Amino acid sequence: MDEKIVVPSRAGEKPALPRPLTWSWSILLGRQEFVVLVLLLVIGVFLSLRTDTFFTSRNLFNVARAFSWIAIAAFGESMVIIIGGIDLSVGAVMALAGLISALCLQAGLPVLVAVAAGLLTGGLVGGVNGVMVGRVKLPPFIVTLGTMSIARGVTFGLTGGWPVRNLPQGFRLLGQYDLPLGSWFLPLPVLVMLGLAALVSLLLGQTVLGRYIYALSNSERALLVCGVNTAQIRVLVYTLCGLLTAVGGLLMTARLGVAAPTAAVGYELDIIAAAVIGGTSLFGGEGSILGVLLGAAIMQVLRNGLVLLGFPAYWQAAAIGAMILVAILLDYWRRMSAAL
Amino acid sequence: MIHQLLWGLILLLAGGLVGCQVYAESAGKLNPDTDLSRETLTIAWIPKALDNPVFELGRQGAVQKATELTTSGPVQVEVLYVGSVAADAAEQVRVMEDVIARGVDAIAISCNDPTACIDPIQKAVAAGIPVMTWDSDSPESQRFTYLGVDNYQAGRAAADLLVRAMGPRGKVAILTGVPGAFNLEERIRGFKDSIAAYPGIQIVATVASNDDINLGVQLVEETMQAHPDLDGWFFVGMWPLFAERGSMPLWEEAALHRGMKTVAFDTLPVELELLRDGYLSGLVGQKYWGWGYDTIQIIYDHVIEGKSFPPFINSGMDIVTHNNVEAMLRAWKTNDFSQPLPDPFFPDPFR
User: Is B206 an interface residue toward A (CB < 8 Å)?
Assistant: First the structure.
């Protein structure tokens, strides 16, 4: 890959500036992450006062585990959105990756091989998405709609509708093991999520590739003038998204001990919502992993809170939808006031 | 390069479309003694969706009955198993239109939507194809009969099971699937109507899993946190029970060591094992196998023998407790559901 990152201004486009990873207050206050964090804290304090079950380490870790696989997939999704794309296949890929691993385990293959096969499946679907979008230049919405359907169809075809069960303990531990840390028990999926968050943050914030990713949607011509192979970046980002999604799918499958062909139906919307609530702009070029993490957290905390409060089940979907709109509206006002 | 990729894409998309519909036209056609001189009776057996394993059991029942009728009678009976992958009313209407165009001798369908089914059923009847419904009815259509369970009564049966197991007082929670699904709502209505007779029983929470295993597991655990003294659960479907043991520690702990009782719908092997091992107290299940087995017989009698049927045939339901769980497990192992189950309540399994 070409190492030039200086974008000549005569290209007639705004130079692409990566979002800096600085932690000064003035920058923090103006960011969506901060808005979501405040919202999260408000909800958290409210729930702690109203219930005596919310603010317990057990509940908080349960919630963290419940959003870990959504968040991990959303890390990949946010990168795709940052380059101006969208990936609708993520829910189906979660199910397919988990199922392929489960089938490998059923065939008696060792856990490591099964996990590798699951990850490979995710990377493969992501790679197909990337080639179709990056090289053939098809619209990502349609491409990933197609691969979503294929991935989901394959899960039905392979299983005839039956969930695959009786997975070996070694595999289930990936999702069920809680690492003792003092009096806390940290679920393994949460640790994986934090590790991947750090890695993807580094990739986006500290590498040349990360700068290209931020620049791609709004300054593609400038990158091309510099000799950057933008198609290759697209293929890579979609492949990474597939891979991360597969990690999420495997953790969920391991946690439940069952790979159902109907698993993760509709999760693509939760995943996209997590990215967008966390400040990833659907117009591309903007977003951070910390925001995605908080975005995934807020949806799950809210859902958890509604259950603990005894909020009627029939109204919960409406309440969560309203919260998504509130988060997006706050983001909008923040941007408007920043623009003035 | 680009051209190859484009072709690849077209193939992939075509594959995806096929994946959406998956026409499984296999069952019943593999009869070894296919005899072209005999009259054939081709029955399209259409489930709500192909993604639900209970329909697979119905398909096996249908194939079994078709084989039996073919060997014992003069007519070659064939089952055409077609449906959409997901439970979708519009897609199912299309499947109906396809089989009408293809030309079959009879149709047996589980309707995704009672109203959406009316028009294609009228079309089939107009084309001279008799239609019956099973599992899920379309009462205003011209189907000649409906074989199914009364979900309201099934909900009452579940309440009866829970009261027998738990006693006439306590705190109870309900886990449902997609809010608004007609069969689930009917079960809940029956359950609540029965529970209303016991002022000592309080329904403290109703949670909806959206038919999602993962969400179901979370909701059960969260409800256990919110109500640590819960005495009973009614799972209107079996969603969280698909997950491996160890994924719902609070529920498992309460079931095994605190005397909390759970009654669930359906009688799949994983549930039977949980019942056998003391996690569940009772199960109410539809006769999935009969959806196919009995339906094919009814159609045969109607079309070949000219019998008429009442508009509703109650398929009955299976009630499983400790008394008959082993018998039900055996039926699954041997794939023979023709034997009646032992009495679930005598001797009293909850004493």
Answer: yes
Same fold, B21-149+289-315 and B151-286+318-334: yes
B222 with A62: Cβ contact below 8 A: yes
CA distance B339 to chain A (A): 25
Arch. (CATH architecture) of B151-286+318-334: 3-Layer(aba) Sandwich (3.40)
- Can you give the pLDDT at residue B100? 92
Q: Which two tokens stand for residue A79?
A: 């990168």
CATH number, span A9-17+30-339? 1.10.3470
Question: Distance, in angstroms, between A312 CA and closest chain B CA?
Answer: 7
> And the tokens for B269?
């092997």
User: Rounded to whole angstroms, how far apart are CA atoms B212 and B113?
Assistant: 21
The domain segmentation of chain B, as residue ranges, is 21-149+289-315, 151-286+318-334
Least confident of A25-29, B64-68, B294-298: A25-29
Q: Are B177 and B163 in contact (CB under 8 A)?
A: no
Domain spans in chain A, listed from the N-terminal domain onward: 9-17+30-339
> pLDDT tens digit string along B68-99?
999 998 999 999 999 887 778 888 998 999 99
Q: Do B22 and A308 touch (CB under 8 A)?
A: no
For B96, the enclosing helix (H) or strand (E) is helix B89-102
Specify the pLDDT at position A234.
97
Q: Is A309 helix (H, G, I), strand (E, B) or coil?
A: helix
User: pLDDT at position B325, please?
Assistant: 96
Give the type of residue at B226.
Answer: A
| Structure tokens belonging to residue B96 | 């109906």
Q: Are B93 and B120 in contact (CB under 8 A)?
A: yes
Asked if residues B48 and A175 have their Cβ atoms less than 8 Å apart, the reply is: no
Please give the model's pTM, rounded to 2 decimal places. Answer: 0.80
- Structural tokens at position B337: 């559901």
CA distance A206 to B305: 78
Q: Hey, are the CB atoms on A156 and B205 less than 8 Å from each other? A: no
- DSSP secondary structure string, B142-159? --S-EEE--HHHHHHHHH
Q: Among residues A270, A241, A285, A306, which one has the least CA distance to residue A93?
A: A241
Helix (H, G, I), strand (E, B) or coil at A52: coil
pLDDT at B227: 95
Query: Could you identify the residue written with the tokens 């997950």?
Result: B243
Contact B206 A312 (CB under 8 A): yes
Q: Choose among B6, B210, B244: nearest Cβ to A256.
A: B244
Class of domain B21-149+289-315: alpha beta
Give yes or no for B209 touching A (CB within 8 A): no
Q: How many A-B residue pairs are in contact by the CB < 8 A criterion?
A: 141
Q: Residue A284 and residue B40: Cα distance in Å, rounded?
A: 61
Q: Which are the contacts of A38, defined by CB distance < 8 A and separation ≥ 6?
A: none
> Are B247 and A160 an interchain contact pair (Cβ–Cβ within 8 Å)?
no
- Using one digit for the tens of pLDDT, what is the confidence trace for B174-226? 999 988 788 899 999 999 999 999 999 999 999 999 889 999 999 999 999 99
ipTM: 0.79
Q: Which residue of A has its CA nearest to B1?
A: A136
